[in-house]
Amino acid sequence: MAEAVPRSQTGIRVLLVDDHQVVRRGLRTFLEVQDDIEVVGEAGDGAEGVARAEELRPDVVLMDVKMPGMDGIEALRKLRELGNAAKVLIVTSFTEQRTVVPALRAGASGYVYKDVDPDALAGAIRSVHAGHVLLQPEVAVALLSQEETNGGTGRGGTLTEREREVLGLIADGRSNREIARALVLSEKTVKTHVSNILMKLDLADRTQAALWAVRHGLTG
Q1: Which residues lie below 8 Å from residue 172, measured CB to CB, with a gap of 6+?
Q2: What is the per-residue pLDDT for 190?
Q3: Distance CA 42, CA 30 (A)
Q4: pLDDT surpassing 80 at residue 71
Q5: pLDDT of 154 above 70
Q6: pLDDT of res. 175
């Protein structure tokens, strides 16, 4: 096994998972010129991606969806089962848009299209690293439609006023630190509120919480 790369003190550590070497090379070439982003490793399929993520402990994994063997969504589920804390940014093509919903439900922090502008890609990496959820309108519509089909949840009345404020800020894409600043709370208190919100609404993660808030009109 290759020796793990020492953890950077300042840069965002990124792992590239894509079965096309030319794509990985292009991504690495661009990202390595960013002062605050460090590419710590690469993988050519989902299984290798999981192994490398466990070995290197990156901050963000840039994950392709369609790969031989273990695909990106299965790899994402495996990372979550292992308790790996890396943020996962799914890379997909417009024609694969239907795969984005399962990826977000599996715990992805967002997605970018394969033809994304390089500067926008760097911005997306910084955004998910900061705790934001990248959710474009067409995917939000698809997810909300599924919630309606599945009956959704109607437990909003169990939330306190403060929890509703926190939930609204989650839907606006705010990180825990930003929510703490906005509401003049400690980050620890915000984390407690987020945990309580997820438990009360029977939601798995911040993405589902953001969707619940959009559906129930709690956004700003």
Answers
A1: 219, 220
A2: 92
A3: 14
A4: yes
A5: no
A6: 87
Q: Could you tell me which residues are beta bridge partners of residue 42?
A: 16
Alpha-carbon torsion, ordered 172, 177, 178, 184, to 10 deg: 120
Residue 11 CA to residue 176 CA, distance in Å, equals 20
Contact 16, 62 (CB under 8 A): yes
Other CB atoms within a 10 A radius of the CB of residue 93 amount to 13
Q: Residue 151 class from Cβ within 10 Å (0-12 exposed, 13-18 middle, 19+ buried)?
A: exposed
Nearest to 103 by CA among 136, 130, 69, 54: 136
Helix (H) or strand (E) holding 160: none
- Rounded CA gap, 142 and 31, in Å? 31
What count of Cα atoms within 13 Å lies in the side-chain half-sphere of residue 143? 25
Strand order in the sheet with 87-92: 37-43, 12-17, 60-64, 87-92, 110-113
Highest mean pLDDT among 80-89, 94-103, 131-140, 199-208 belongs to: 80-89
**Residue tagged 């991606």 (tokens):** 49
**Both structure tokens of 17:** 């998972």
Question: Quick check: 140 pLDDT over 50?
Answer: yes
Is residue 63 within 8 A of residue 14, CB to CB? The reply is no
Burial 13-33 (b: 16+ CB within 10 A, else e): bbbbbbbeeeebeebeeebee
Q: Which residues pair with 110 in a beta bridge?
A: 89
3-state secondary structure of 13: strand
Q: How far, in Å, CA of 135 to CA of 143, rounded?
A: 10
